[in-house]
Amino acid sequence: MTDGRATNQCDLLVCADMAFLDGRVFHDAAVAICDGTITACGDRGDIAEQFEARETLRLTDAFLLPGLINAHTHLPMTLLRGVGDDRPLLQWLREDIWPVEGRLSPELLRLGAALGCAEMIRTGCTAFMNGYFHEENTGRAAHDAGIRAVLGEGFFGFPSPMFPDAESCWTTLRRLRQQYSGHPRIRTSVAPHAVFTVSPDALTASHTLAAELDLPWQIHLAESPEETTSCVEKHGKRPVELLDSLGILDRRCTLHHCVDVSEEDIGRLAETGAKVVHNPASNMKLASGIAPIQRMLDAGVTIGLGTDGAASNNQLNMFREMGLAALGGKVRDHDARAASAASVLDMATRGSAQCLHWPELGTLAPGRPADMCALDLCAPNMLPVNDLISHTTYAATGHEVRMTMCEGRVLYLDGNFRTLDLKGLKSEADKARRWISSLRR
Hints:
Elements: E1 8-21, E2 24-34, E3 37-43, H1 44-50, E4 51-66, E5 68-73, H2 89-101, H3 106-122, E6 125-130, H4 136-145, E7 148-155, H5 166-179, E8 186-192, H6 200-213, E9 217-221, H7 225-235, H8 239-245, E10 253-257, H9 263-272, E11 275-278, H10 280-285, H11 293-299, E12 303-305, H12 318-333, H13 341-355, E13 372-376, H14 388-395, E14 401-406, E15 409-413, E16 416-417, H15 422-439
Parallel strand pairs: 1-4, 5-6, 6-7, 7-8, 9-10, 10-11, 11-12
Antiparallel strand pairs: 1-2, 2-3, 4-13, 13-14, 14-15, 15-16
């Protein structure tokens, strides 16, 4: 560059005092973005010399890192936050959740999903894997909010208000896949609920459909000792063993929870390439237990991180989830070295990307999508800045997030949502609360 001018152009240059780029912490860093993709990243001086930016975003006293990925949630259940708290899982589902869910209208489903998108964007999340019903409503909310989503049309093995039979769900899944075919930020999956609510034949049929459509297959699995007992009584096998015996435990699978797994189960997970999503807050709240994530990591199992729904968490905050994953992992193993800060951050980014079957996400590197967030390093709980990875996992609460970006588009910056009307959402949420209260009197 003999004339001293940059030889390349980019749409946006994001500059930050600190950044986590391709697995390394950089001081005084920059990321060049073109058409929603990272073109180059590294030292600010080097990047600034190479690129002439149409727009520059300068984030002083900030730590830039990949957007967090919520690998398991039920976004419309945000409307049920605080409903039926402090009850065991199966009682909570049967007495508090299912009676209300069957009466949720498309408008309410979309509202709950939009509220969930707002909470996740506010706390640095840029992608999520969902499981619910009438998923086109969550898809619309994600599209409008500018966030990435993998939608999973959930179904049970018995007639429900959503589907009279499995074949009706298959029809909906095919339509949903066609609807979002080619969408840059929204994909679909097949999502049977659990082994205690779906028969082995329907599980197998759903997996066959996922293979036919080349979609991920996600399921709640081994969530509690009670589920294991039920599965053994009904089928003579533990949940992981049951899927393996059916020939449907493979790389296509994303398994949510896996709290009650044996050493043999972990070996099967590692051998088959099935992926596991850890949901520490929900598992703790429902007293399901703490998944043996360090043992699974040591065995080579891919682990992602999720919040579950806001009704059983009661947050969609991935920073909180990271802290609980690290602390809970140490308590479970009685080992301070278990579930390290770095491994948990990896779960919330690269591990979760694998669980979404969207492996290009979760890392800030050339050629990767420009999905990122930035933490305020002036927040008192982030000072002094001794170890950024430690601070991200243990010190951050999520509300230090200054900026959230997806596909090169800023969704939130310094207190302002750019794609969502939070005031309007609050007004609609108040109406929904009154309606839900009337159902439970």
